[in-house]
Fold:
Amino acid sequence: MSSIPTLHILYTCPFCWKVRGLIEHLGIEANYVSVNGLKIKKEVAFAGDWGKVPVFTDENGEHFVDSTPLLKHIDATFNDGKMAKMGDSKRQEEWLEWTDTKLSKATVPILYGTLGSALKTTTRISKIEKFGFFSRRLYAWAGFPIMWGIIAKKRVKKDGRKPKQLWHDLLTEFTDEHNGKPFFGGESPDLVDFAAFGYMRSISPFPQFSLLKDHDAGMAWYNRMHASLDSTN
Structure:
């Protein structure tokens, strides 16, 4: 029996926002199912050994995983592959990889790069995501030093730039590549735009998003991306 597609997500997951943005832009009717942040593997076990979100289940019950391949699959299935055909395919592939290696790694430092920001982030996540009463408090107060001590601190030290400067540099590099056009894809967004938008959008629920707001070109592009979603809803 056919039904509408389903996307299993965490509301604060950048990889989920990549896929969700494209679904919204294309006006695809879909169910969004929030999983428990501490039980992800168990709650998406139906999709095999992947054990992560997002998981996209099509109307026939077939499961698809991994955010960048998911972007391509959704574009091919629901949009006749139009975004994948925009511009130079080699350039698009290179910049999809750029977003997944550069922007994805920049999200952790800006959200967890200091002790204070890490606490704000995990406290906010515990309120947004689906947690039980006790696991919510455990995550908020025990999760942040782990994220700070193991991941973010190491990345900040290795890069040498403060998280705000890192993001500003990346946004400059990205928007310069638009060559005066509104989007990376030209007059309309392509898969690279939605990949980059997902990473930036995942920071928007947190106070640290204010650190990005004085990057004029980046915010102008971000607002145009939001407008592209609103125009289809």
Observations:
- The two ends are 27 Å apart (CA to CA).
- The mean pLDDT is 88.
- Residues 6-78 form a domain with the Glutaredoxin fold (CATH 3.40.30.10).
